[in-house]
Amino acid sequence: MKYLHSLLLGLAVFGSMSSAAQSVDYSQFKTNDEENNIEVFKQASPAVVNITNSRFVRSYYSLNPQEVPQGSGTGFVWNEEGYIVTNYHVVQQANRVTVTMQNGTTYDATAIGFDPDKDLAVLKIDAPDTDLVPVTPGDSSILEVGRKVIAIGNPFGLDTTMTVGVVSALGREIDSVSRRKIRDVIQTDAAINPGNSGGPLLNSLGQLIGVNTAIYSPSGASSGIGFAIPVNTVKRVVPELIAYGRVQTPVLGITRVPQPDYYRRLWGVEGVIVMDVVAGTDPARLGMRGLSRSQRGRIQLGDVIIGIDDMTVSNEDEYAEIMEQRRPGDVVKVLTRRDNQTLEYEVELQAPPSR
Predict the structure, then answer these.
(1) 119 given a catalytic annotation
(2) Residues 6+ away with beta carbon under 8 Å from 61
(3) Chain segment 194-206, per-residue pLDDT in tens
(4) Residue 352's Cα: distance from chain center in Å?
(5) Which of 34, 105, 198, 271 could join 86 via S-S bond, C-beta 3.0 to 4.6 A?
(6) Tens digits of residue pLDDT in 253-286
(7) Which residue of the set 45, 72, 176, 197 is catalytic?
(8) At 16, is the secondary structure helix, strand, or coil?
(9) Which residue is catalytic, options 72, 89, 115, 303?
């Protein structure tokens, strides 16, 4: 009897819901979340572009090079001057890059600058102002786990696709194309698939908070773990790529050993091993030493950098992270170890050599 009563009550509730649903015009009905999704998509999608790249390959049987498609990805309009931001790996080793706007117009793109360490690239197209709708950069430092995010991209070549999720975690680290660590990466469960790379990750206001760059997936398809480069990193890197073609990370005046992990294990040290010092720089003038060869022909360690400005340096990633926060002309305190002694140098940082 109790079961029958519950069943009848359920049918009554279902009937009242059905009647209410029939009385509402679905074309006019939207939840608050649906309204927000639609608004963000309409606002941001004109800024999202499809990027294809190709290489010239010479056939064994012909001297004439052929243009071969190499891949595709996503990008977005940075400003009204025609600059397009995408991932470095989307356009890596391309001989020709084309950008297709949402209206279907295609433009040949010129590579302006690359930062493989942050997996970012800037292209430029010659397009009318009416085609150039830039994104609005936000602030990734105020993100919280649980905040809604929206990704727009071209997964598997399906243009202008939107997926919705949340910020799953903050402060992640992933490897870049150059094997450097990209820090403070945003993790999201918004579906990101091949082709989404280089596309924008947006907040509920339609502001750019990250650049979608990678997924964690054994199958290669979305598994609910995607990563985006935070917009605060993008805002620092992109203007330098536009102005100089590369990030203006200053140089200390040393050269570092190749395969540093191998040599750190070989010699049982932590830090950045100085292979040589550059003539005319402060390290050379102050007596910092690189590797040398003994009378018996054995390679001897010189200085090993263990700290910069009271911050510990145990590997190349930490060294690069510190240097990226400095500018040419800054004077830094460099601590090194040599022959079981701690040495200190005051070094003026230099601008990177022009290409």
Answers:
(1) yes
(2) none
(3) 788 899 999 999 9
(4) 22
(5) 198
(6) 999 998 898 989 989 999 999 999 999 999 999 9
(7) 197
(8) helix
(9) 89
